[in-house]
Amino acid sequence: MNICPNKLETQNICKYFAQELIIENINIYLKENELVSLLGVSGIGKSTLFNVIAGVLVPESGRVLLNGQDVTGQAGRISYMQQKDLLQPHLTVLDNVALPLFIRGLRKNEARSQALRYFKDFGLDGTERKYPSQLSGGMRQRAALLRTYLFSHDVALFDEPFSALDTITKGKMHRWYLNLMERINMSALFITHDIDEAILLSDRIYIMTGPPGIITQEIIINEPRPRDDHFLISDAFLEYKRQIIKILSI
Amino acid sequence: MKKLPNITAKIYPATLLISLLLCWYLITKIELVPSFMLPSPGDVLMAFIGSFPELMYHAKISLTEAFVGLGISIVLAFLIALIMDRFEVLYKAMHPVLVVTQTIPTVAIAPLLVLWLGYDMAPKITLVVLACFFPMTIALLGGLRSSDPDALNLMRAMGAKQWQIYKYIKLPSSLPGFFAGLRISVSYSIVGAVIAEWLGGNSGLGVYMTRVRKSYAFDKMFAVIFLIIILSLILMKCVELLEKKTMPWAQVDQEQESNF
């Protein structure tokens, strides 16, 4: 037993597609309540790594550990959220959010009442009986986030979740998200190509370069949470940004 | 707000329809075509009222055939579409064959069906099935196969079993296609039943049609044709209502759009 066990850990993950090495020797970890970002340009294999961690893809080598348990290639343990909210148009917001609980085999009423408890915290009050098409982009992402949270309370993967939103909505979502994290316990791994987003939200940032995708550097953001807009224009923020741009441009 | 554009949209086809009826009336009025060849709208209406009990009796038979055939087609379409979606090999093997079956002219095989299956309802129902199940199968299959691969992936990541993926994603997303197919199929089903009845049998609108044609009662012919049109329209309307009932979310989408 470790003193401070990692929530999630990957060990030496390699993944090929058609003989081509996509990601090489990925070793990353995520501690409880930590928010870690994976930053890199598009097409570097970030999403491949995510699918491996989510258990949808099986790596050629390496292991995925969740709470110290080997879950390599096992789907149904860790949920993820994409920039597409993937809310089903034919389900009400409540049923969409409760979908992972339905899948787990909970009775409909039980699943719905469990999901309902979080509607207020996630700012979704009053949307229960609506259909996704009646919600704004930001609200839909919140619903998608709640669905992810209900699926696996402790660890969640986010694949560029806010990148489809306009800048202003995105800023609002960041503030809302940071605020939410103060109230709920969730360890999260974020994929992003947005440097500002990574610095604002993360405790640590892994920088991925390639191809093949490898983790080049780990940057620790030493800034207390909750962070606000002042941090975005502080010298410390710019220093982090300068450092990251330098690594990415090599 | 919403009703207004609806009404104006209906004025155009109504005007066209009324002018066509008027043309018809005038043509018969000035006897451009002799009245035994083309009865006037009034004659047709009188024939319709006069032979109403007969028409209803035969319509009941035809509708029964159409409904049974349609029911079998729906079940068949679901089964075939589901296995074709589930097993790629079957999709590849069956899709071209299904398309070929559609090129067989129904009128041409109707006599064969009568020879094989007799004068009862069996050949009629078979023909209805042949005419109906294809548009529904193709529409359903299209819906099933067009599910968002990302959504399917997410379902798998959430640990969903195959049947759950069908229940929560694939079947609901195939419903709009299914109803599009069903709308076409209901009108095919009545026409299919009538065509089959032309070639043999003791009752049904097709049989009645043949009978009145042979006695040159053109006004009654027209009455049957109008009855078939009315029945088809009613059935299509029923499908529309059923669609609204089963897909409440689609309603919301439309309202959403009209708000912009």
Detailed description of the structure:
The complex is a heterodimer of chains A (250) and B (260). Chain A has helices spanning 46-54, 93-103, 108-116, 137-151, 167-183, 195-201, 229-232, 235-248; strands at residues 8-17, 20-30, 35-39, 61-66, 69-70, 79-82, 155-159, 187-192, 204-209, 214-220. Chain A has 250 residues and is α/β, with parallel strands linked by helices. In chain A, β9 and β10 (214-220) form a beta hairpin. In chain A, α2 (93-103) runs parallel beside α4 (137-151). In chain A, 42% of the residues are buried. Chain B is 85% helix and 0% strand. In chain B, α3 (52-86) packs across α6 (121-145) and α3 crosses α9. Chain B has a single domain, classed as MetI-like fold, CATH 1.10.3720. Chain B has 260 residues and is an all-alpha fold. Chain B has helices at 3-29, 41-50, 52-86, 88-103, 106-117, 121-145, 149-157, 162-198, 205-214, 218-246, 248-259. At the A-B interface, β6 and α2 of A face α7, α8 and α11 of B.
For this entry, give a set of tags.
heterodimer, A: 250 residues, alpha/beta, 2 domains, six-stranded mixed beta sheet, four-stranded antiparallel beta sheet, B: mainly alpha, MetI-like fold, 0% strand
Which helices and strands appear, and what pairs or packs with what?
The complex is a heterodimer of chains A (250) and B (260).
Chain A: E1 8-17, E2 20-30, E3 35-39, H1 46-54, E4 61-66, E5 69-70, E6 79-82, H2 93-103, H3 108-116, H4 137-151, E7 155-159, H5 167-183, E8 187-192, H6 195-201, E9 204-209, E10 214-220, H7 229-232, H8 235-248
Parallel strand pairs in A: 3-8, 3-9, 6-7, 7-8
Antiparallel strand pairs in A: 1-2, 1-4, 4-5, 9-10
Helix pairs in contact in A: 2-3, 2-4, 6-8
Chain B: H1 3-29, H2 41-50, H3 52-86, H4 88-103, H5 106-117, H6 121-145, H7 149-157, H8 162-198, H9 205-214, H10 218-246, H11 248-259
Helix pairs in contact in B: 2-10, 3-4, 3-6, 3-8, 3-9, 5-6, 6-8, 8-9, 8-10, 9-10
Write a short abstract of this structure.
Chain A is built from eight helices and ten strands. Helix content of chain A is about 35%, strand content about 25%. Chain B is globular, with a radius of gyration of 23 Å.
